[in-house]
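User: Can you help me understand a structure? I only have the sequence.
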Amino acid sequence: MKESFRFAFLKTIPVMLGYLFLGLAFGLLLQEAGYSFWWALLISAIVYAGSIQFVLVSFLTAGTSLPVVAVMTLLINSRHAFYGLTFIEKFKAMKSRPYMIFSLTDETYSLLCSLKVPEGMDEKKVMFLISLLDQIYWIIGSVVGAALGQVLPFDMTGIDFAMTALFVTIFVDQWREAKSHLPAVIGLISSVICLLIFGGSNFILPSLIITVTILMALQKRLEGKVENT
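Assistant: Let's start by predicting it. Here is the structure, written out as C-alpha cells:
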C-alpha cells in the first residue's frame, strides 16, 4: 500500500500544483460572493467539477434557477461522457466504481490514460489513489482559498491561466512517455481546427467527437504500431 501511495503521489504532483492553485482561486471567488469556507468544502466534495464550480459562483450570486444550472452543468461537462468510455471495463471490476466515475475530471482522466504501473503493483488501487489524491488537492485548495479570502485581499489578475499551464504540463509529460505520438497529433490538429471554427467556448465537445472517431477508426493500426516498437 505504501509503495502504491508513493507511486500515485508522484504521478499526481503536476495536478497537485495546478489544483491547489485553482482550488485557491475558487475558494477566493466563493468567499467574495459571500460564502464561507464550509461552502467551499461542501461544493468541492460533492460537486467537484472544476470549471462548473467557477460558473456556479456566478449562478449563486445571480439567483439562477435550478433547471438552468442543470442544463449548463450538462453542457459544460458533456465531454465526460467520452472519458468514461475509455475505462468501462476497468471500472466494472472495481469496488470503488461509483467514486471512480464521479472523480473522473479532465486531469485525472489524462493521468489514468497514460498510467503504467510497475510490475507487481495493483493497477486498480493506484487508479483509485490517483483519483482520491486529485480531489483532496482540490478540496484543500478550495478551503484554504476561502479561509484566506476572509482575512487577506487578493488580486485575481491572470489566475485563470493556471488550468492552461496544467494541461500543457500533462501533455508534455505524456508526449515524452508515449511510444506513438500520432494520437496526440490527431487530438492537437482537431482541437485547433475546431477552435477556429467554433470558437474558444464551444470547441471542446466537437474536437473530442472528431478525435475519438478518428482514433477508433485507426485503433488496430495504432495498436499494431505500438506493439512493433
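Now, to help you interpret it: The first helix runs from residue 2 to 11. The chain has two domains: 2-160, 178-229. Let me know which part you'd like to focus on.
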